[in-house]
Amino acid sequence: MERLGEAGVDEALLIARSQQGDTDAFNRLVAQYHRQVFNLAYRMLGDRAAAEDATQETFLSAFQKLGSFRAGNFRAWLLRIAVNACRDYLRSGHHRKTLSLEGLAEEDPTTPFPSNDEAPEDYALRRELRDAIAQGLKTLPPDQRLAILLVDVQGLSYEEAAQVMGVPMGTVKSRLSRARLAMRSYLLAHKELLPASLRFL
Questions:
Q1: Do 1-97 and 111-201 fold alike per CATH?
Q2: Cα distance between residue 191 and residue 135, in whole Å
Q3: Which of 26, 158, 178, 191 has the fewest Cβ atoms surrounding its Cβ within 10 A?
Q4: How far apart are CA 123 and CA 169, in angstroms?
């Protein structure tokens, strides 16, 4: 079978070749979506090791089910598998009941280290804000948290989020509205978690 080049390979071709058993093609899909799947799992589960397990389970399940994918939005299809993997993990009882302080102190692997043109103060403020948002997200009901993660963090459209969640688009909008309101209320009530420059909001 013809090997894939480094560039110019269309996603539909990667999917078609993966369905034919081309592991190189599937590895390209994994590389393309790994970060997005891991980010979602990390924020749903609040634990790095659990997110890694869920991510691995997602791609294993996707490879096994790839023959059933016919057409449509591959990203939404894949993220729905990721959501189900996270839900299965939470139902299994193996997850930690609370996130440890050590885990909270770790550098979030989804956030890049400061770039050469970012001042240390700006990086510190960005981390403070990220941590405050992460704390707020953990207070949301799972369905609201998932809605805000998919739309506001992952950048999915309402239609894609509806596909991932398996609910009507109106339900996504409703959950997202409640999640945004709850996050705003949380941040206003916990201004001490925000960078000093934002505490006047």
A1: no
A2: 12
A3: 191
A4: 36
Tokens of 61: 């399940």
Q: What are phi and psi of 155, to 5 degrees?
A: 80, 20
Instruction: Give 154's DSSP letter.
Output: S
pTM, entire model: 0.72
DSSP 150: I
Class of domain 111-201: mainly alpha
Q: What is the DSSP letter of 109?
A: T
Annotated domain spans of the chain: 1-97, 111-201
What top-level class would CATH report for the domain 1-97?
mainly alpha
pLDDT digits (tens, 9 = 90+) for 58-105: 999 999 999 889 878 999 999 999 999 998 888 876 654 433 333 333
C-alpha dist (Å) from residue 89 to 27, 58, 95, 153, 188: 24, 11, 7, 22, 32
CB 198 within 8 A of CB 129: yes
- The span from the CA of 159 to the CA of 171, in Å, is 11
Q: Using an 8 Å Cβ cutoff, are 40 and 83 in contact?
A: yes
